[in-house]
C-alpha cells in the first residue's frame, strides 16, 4: 500500500511528551474523500478496507517458540510471520537468538525495545484523525488501538547453545523473566509461548536430515536458521554417514532434555499465555488464549504441517471477455479456452493424480471459483472413485466451488475495457494507478477485500496433504501465489499469471527453500498477452 502525508504538522509542547496535532495518513486512492467540501465540511474517517487494517492486532506481541531441538520451530516461525504480515498487516520481525548478535540478553532486549516501542503511525494509521483536543495520556491509548500491530518472533536454530539465555524460554525462570521484562515497556506487550512437542521419531529424523544432512540429498536447513546465519558445515560432507549424524543428533537431544523444562501443567505457569502443539496439530493445549489475534494464531499453527505436498494453480481458459479485453462479468469460454479445458482434463490424470509414469493414482483435490469460466475449464477433469489403502473410498478431484475464489469485483466497471474506463472515468484510473492494492472499484472490491475473503481458504489449504489444483482468476491467483511464495502483498498486484498455464508449487515440508515453480503450457495458441486482464 502507498501512503502519503501532508502537510507537515507542528508539535505542541505540553507537560507530557509532545504529540502531533493532526494525524493525516491515509490510503492515497481515498485522499479526495477526506477533504472538506461545501456539502460535507466535517468529513468522517474511512473504514479500513480489511480486518488486517482495523487495529484488531494493535497491541505489541512477542511470540516465543520453544521445545527440544529438531522439532521444526524455525519452520513454524517463518510461516507464522508470513501469514501475519500478509493477512493481518502486522509488522513482524524474526529473531534467531542463536545468531551471534543476539547471544547477549541485554543486546537482544534493547533491540526488542526499539522494535516494539517505535511509533509507526505512517504505516499503521489508515485514516486522518484530528487529535488536537485529545489529552496526551488518551493519545497513548488511541495510538495503540489504531496500530496494525508489531510482532517479534523469537526462536533458536541451536537450542543447546542458547539454553542459558533468558530469551530462550527453556525454563520456568526464563519464561517468567521474559514476561516481567515485557510488562515494563511503555507500550505493554503481550507474550505468547508456543511449545512444539514432537514424539514421532520418524518426523524428528526428517528434521535432523533436513537441517544437518545438506549434502546427503536432503533440504538445506530447518527453516530460517541457516538462511539467516550462513551455511552450516554438514557432518555428512566429511564422512558421508547420515546414520552417524542422526545418532549424534539424537544423543544431543537426549542430553538437552536433562536441562530443558517443559511448560508446567501444575498451575505454576497458569499466568502465562501458551500453546502446546503436539505433533503439528494432532493435539493442541492452550492457556489464557484471549483476543482475536491469539485465537487466529492458534488456529493457523494447528493447520500447518511438515509433510511434502504439491499445489497447482491455473487460470481459467480464455473467456469471451478476455478475447475483447473486457474485465469482470461471468462469460463462458472461447474456442481457445475450450481447447485448454480439454488439454487440462487430459493432463491432470497423468501429472497430478500420479507421482510419475506407471505410478498408482493418489488422492487429489480440486477447487474452482463459482464463475462459469472456471467451472467450464475444470469440467473435463475425470473423477474416478479410488479405494485408498485403509479401505476408504475417495472421489478423485471432487469439485469444490468457492465464491472466495471469484475474480475481484469491478463494480460499476464490470464488462468494460481499461481503455473505456480511462476514457469515461479518468480520475478513477489515476487513483487506481496510485494505489492498486488499496483502491476499491466504485461499488466493487479492492485487493484488500480479496485478501480478507481468501484468508479462511488459506487456513483450509494449509491443512491439506494431498495435491490440490486451484482453477481461478488472475487477481485471485496473484494473492494466493504471493502468499504461498512469501512475496510481499504490496508486490502481488504486479504479478503476471498467464492464461493456459499450470503453475506447480512443490513443498518439501520444511519451508520456502522446498518450493519450486514449474510451468506446463498448453501446446495450443497462447493468448495471455492480450487477455485484457494485465491491469486488473
Automatic annotation (TrEMBL):
Residues 515-536 are annotated as: Disordered. Keywords: ATP-binding, Nucleotide-binding. One of its GO terms (biological process) is fructose 2,6-bisphosphate metabolic process. Residues 59-211 form the 6-phosphofructo-2-kinase domain. Pfam families: 6PF2K, His_Phos_1. InterPro entries: 6Pfruct_kin, 6Phosfructo_kin, His_Pase_superF_clade-1, His_PPase_superfam, P-loop_NTPase, PG/BPGM_mutase_AS. The keyword Nucleotide-binding applies. It comes from the Eukaryota. GO terms for molecular function: 6-phosphofructo-2-kinase activity; ATP binding; fructose-2,6-bisphosphate 2-phosphatase activity. One of its GO terms (cellular component) is cytosol. Signal peptide: none annotated. This is 6-phosphofructo-2-kinase domain-containing protein. It comes from Alexandrium catenella (Red tide dinoflagellate). The lineage of its organism: Eukaryota, Sar, Alveolata, Dinophyceae, Gonyaulacales.
